[in-house]
Design brief:
173 residues; 7 helices; 38% helix; 0% strand; extended
Length: 173
């Protein structure tokens, strides 16, 4: 039994096509698994220097290995985490930072609102091309109108007199 050359080529092409790395360009949910942004790593366990100085455990309380994202954010932005722990509000040293970052208002449900708006946008544009013969970058197709042209923005800033760094030449297509 002789297998035609075209069948072998087609089988090899299908086998190689499964090796593609799609990364963040895949817009569909990969499954019902956990959300990696909800999982916080804990600090490594360590033995205290003096066991008698440990605080009394409280149900629902925190312990030394619990993550503190708020304190880590304060440190990353140049604040003092000790001041955050001492007060229930915003430390006086970080008041200017909070004022500057919230000068245009703060929307408490920003993540939920953006997620809903993006889902609505993708649902509206879902018929962009359901049948595909070759791999297509759906992300590029959907968000092309919303992308920023860096060369046009650089030129706009240069015309306005702003100092801009040099950039590689624009590729001609």
């Amino acid at each position: 039994m002789k297998i035609p050359f075209g069948v072998i080529v087609l089988a090899c092409a299908l086998a190689v096509s499964g090796c593609a790395k799609k990364g963040l360009r895949v817009l569909q949910k990969p499954g019902s698994g956990p959300d990696e942004f909800l999982v916080l790593p804990t600090n490594p366990l360590s033995a205290p220097e003096n066991y008698s100085s440990l605080p009394t455990p409280t149900p629902g309380g925190s312990n030394l290995t619990d993550p503190n994202p708020q304190g880590e954010a304060v440190v990353a932005l140049g604040g003092k985490p000790a001041a955050l722990a001492a007060t229930s509000g915003i430390p006086s040293g970080d008041a200017a930072l909070v004022t500057a970052s919230s000068r245009y208002g703060v929307e408490p449900e920003i993540r939920e609102n953006l997620s809903a708006a993006d889902a609505k946008f993708r649902h509206r544009n879902r018929n962009l091309g359901r049948i595909k013969i070759v791999p297509v970058d759906r992300y590029e197709q959907l968000y092309k109108k919303q992308s920023i042209d860096p060369f046009a923005v650089s030129e706009q800033f240069r015309k306005a007199g702003a100092a801009t760094p040099s950039s590689p030449p624009e590729e001609e297509s």
